[in-house]
């Protein structure tokens, strides 16, 4: 894990799909709740570190399959930059694109897909460098199987 000094932290929350009560697998044993499976996959995300990816820090499981994920966060996004409607130099555009590709390449190397890549999840740190956010949601939810909502939408 990179040192997280001078880092802003953010939290996101979602609900894992609840299993019907008293459900057992074909072996007769109770099924593992989806939130427990997500907790296990999250541990892998904590080891994925790259300068172009927001660092995942911790996850907490609450009542009713609620999960709260703490991760590095930046206050400004590419969406904010586009909303300003100010001219952006071609060199700046190329730099942003290159940094996004660096993050995606690293994820691909580790067998991960972003699935929620959009201007609101391309964050810009204080120096203007890219940090991809929410890249692990698709991975930790087993490609969306363990949640009741579509993955890949910004709010």
TrEMBL record:
It comes from Ficedula albicollis (Collared flycatcher). Residues 1-155 form the Protein kinase domain. It comes from the Eukaryota. Gene3D superfamilies: Transferase(Phosphotransferase) domain 1. GO terms for molecular function: ATP binding; protein kinase activity. GO terms for cellular component: nucleus. This is TBC1 domain containing kinase. It holds the Pfam family Pkinase.
